[in-house]
Amino acid sequence: MAGMGFFDDVPAAEPEPRIHHPWDPPQTELPAIVQTSTVLLARTERAAVAVTGISAYSAGFEISLTARFRPERGEASGERRPGAATGRIEDPRALRRSARFGLQLADGRKVIGEHAPGPGPDIAPDGPILRQFMGGGTPRSHVSRWWCWPLPPAGPLEFVCEWSALGIPESRSAVDGQLILDAAARSIRLWSEDG
Fold first, then answer.
1. Overall domain count for the chain
2. CATH number of the domain to which 170 belongs
3. How confident is the model at residue 116 (pLDDT cuts 50, 70, 90)?
4. Residue 164: CA atoms inside 13 Å, Cβ hemisphere, count?
């Protein structure tokens, strides 16, 4: 049996052709980092939520959202913890899923964050999108990354969050959308998407 490997007689999978859409996160471009400080959205005795980074591409931008959870007295790492609003025991994953995130654009449009990929890979969105594409953490911390398309208009860009399970009411904080537009002009295009 020395000459043949376990998988040698299995045919290689054919890669599925994938068309890149303008609203997809670019895979052939490196972002420019938006020069801004951490944007604290909300802070209570139990939790804090902040935008901890923004990366700009030629057609959209990525937001890093960080949440920190303060352990209750006597809470050991990984245990379930009571919800602030109800007093019930809740799973940390359920607490994270109850968070809401969105954007208020300078032109008045609002964009509500989605945890799912959206209507489908080939259906063009009828407006701006905000989609979570990465996330994870520990019982005391959670980091998620969000893709927003297209670039925002110049003017105030408000980040909006609400987390009723942790007693965080609707909270807002803004940055100047021009900072994102300026950074997008500095992104590095490596090669064309269809190459």
1. 1
2. 2.60.40
3. low
4. 2
